[in-house]
Design goal:
Layout (H helix, E strand, L loop, with lengths): L4 H12 L5 H8 L7 H29 L4 H21 L20 H6 L2 H13 L4 H20 L1 H8 L1 H34 L1
Amino acid sequence: MDHSFLSAFILLLLVLDPLGSLPIFIGIMREVPKERRARVATREVGLAAIVLLAFMFFGDSFLSVMHLSERSLEVAGGVILLIIAIKMIFGSAGESAYGLEPGKEPFIFPLAVPLLAGPSAMATVLLLASRQPERIWDWIGALCAAMWVSGLTLLMADRIRRLLGDSVISAIEKLMGLVLTAIAVEMCLAGLKRYFIGGL
């Protein structure tokens, strides 16, 4: 199916899913000193955008050089998200589900990769660029617009946390941990299914 700029923007926004990932964003940003949150959010969104742009141009070549497939990328991302999801559900009050020490800020992992620039987002930009390479500037524009919306959502995470309160956010975070578990398992199963069916 051929995409327009608008359909590519909507597709990327659905794949990035900034609203669905909001409780995860809030949990991560809670570990960051208040005065650094806006800068960290902007930096992580920028890093995710760079990763996806690089994957748009060089993803196919990189996978070929490393003898990797989109299926292995999908399974690996699913495993990482599954570990995060389990920690979100069963982690203790003083423990970060994201591998961050209190007061430490994320750098690339887990905010930029894999939560924003995850396997599904990488596969999406790769497919857009490979199917209609003559419209690469449209895909770059759609990606930048989708990342801008995601960045705005991330910048508002602390405000939303203050509005809802820590107890509500904690409950939502555990609920999203369940959802994230299902998403992670689905990613793994999809990658394995494509591997076995493709291998026949």
